[in-house]
Amino acid sequence: MKYIRYLFLACLGLTLIAVALANRNIVELQLLPEGLARIVGLNPSTSLPLFVIIFFGVVAGLLIGFVWEWLREHKHRAEVNRKAKEVGKLEREVRKLKGEKHQGKDEVLALLD
């Protein structure tokens, strides 16, 4: 299984290198519309190799997806935390009740119960 993972990572790396080599041309990227850039007073464009823009888009999509899933699963994590607190409370109560049941008894007899 380890070798299959390494083979997959090697193929992925070769594919990314091939995409980068095929898209080395410099392109101009507009960061803001012309009108908005004039209002803000910023340069609305930058020149980058195309593969950088492609890879940045992939990474940005992954990060947005991870954050979206983390926010979506918040209710499940909150429910697990609530149940864990409830289990801890019930375990403390059981220990307390067992201690009260065996209070004043011989320790050997308490162990047998």
From TrEMBL:
Residues 80-107 form a coiled coil. It comes from the Bacteria. One of its GO terms (cellular component) is plasma membrane. The keyword Membrane applies. Keywords: Cell membrane, Coiled coil, Membrane, Transmembrane, Transmembrane helix. Residues 46-94 form the Lipopolysaccharide assembly protein A domain. The chain crosses the membrane at residues 46-68. The keyword Membrane applies. This is Lipopolysaccharide assembly protein A domain-containing protein. The lineage of its organism: Bacteria, Pseudomonadati, Pseudomonadota, Alphaproteobacteria, Rhodobacterales.
